[in-house]
């Protein structure tokens, strides 16, 4: 049986470190940080960890409907989305994931662009 990326890279312990590092950089981004003003970041990191874990074949599940609900009223445009994807890619590189594995994860995220971007 093929090993999942989730198991290959150390499960929730690694994914939650990746997500924390990702949000540190998101909050340093002048384009993205205003969207997160006043939010409970712990809750967000928790949800995002489940989301990334599910993309990596882990035991968590995260529905596309939940993604739509979370972003519906935020007015996120394509440039915001691209910036978030770029930061996620840098973060995955920092954690030394293999290039092919990074491409798979980023591909999964990019395929959900239309659930998140609501502004042209
Ligand atoms: C790379 C693409 C993105 C992915 C995979 C993603 C994923 C997620 C996930 C899984 C959640 C948690 C949903 C929940 O709590 O049920 C979330 C929440 C959120 N996302 Fe994103 N997101 C992305 C891009 C963005 C962008 C570009 C922005 C803003 C510019 C953004 C702003 C937010 C905010 C503000 C919340 C919290 C909403 C709330 O709790 O009310 N996201 N996102």
Automatic annotation (TrEMBL):
For this UniProt record, give its keywords in alphabetical order, as a comma-separated list. Answer: Heme, Iron, Metal-binding, Transport
Q: Which SUPFAM superfamilies match?
A: Globin-like
- Pfam families from the UniProt entry: Bac_globin
Q: Does the keyword Zinc apply?
A: no
| Keyword Flavoprotein belongs to the record | no
Task: List the InterPro entries.
Answer: Globin-like_sf, Globin/Proto, Hemoglobin_trunc
User: What is the protein named?
Assistant: Group 1 truncated hemoglobin
Species, as recorded: Marinobacterium zhoushanense
């Amino acid at each position: 049986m093929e090993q999942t990326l989730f198991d290959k890279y150390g499960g929730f312990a690694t994914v939650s470190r990746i997500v924390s590092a990702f949000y540190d950089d998101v909050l340093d981004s002048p384009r993205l940080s205003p969207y997160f003003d006043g939010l409970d970041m712990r809750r967000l990191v928790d949800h995002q960890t489940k989301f990334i874990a599910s993309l990596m074949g882990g035991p968590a599940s995260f529905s596309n409907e939940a993604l739509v609900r979370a972003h519906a009223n935020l007015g996120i445009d394509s440039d915001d989305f691209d910036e978030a994807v770029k930061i996620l890619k840098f973060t995955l590189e920092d954690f030394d994931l293999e290039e092919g594995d990074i491409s798979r994860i980023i591909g999964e995220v990019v395929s959900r662009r239309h659930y998140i971007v609501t502004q042209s």
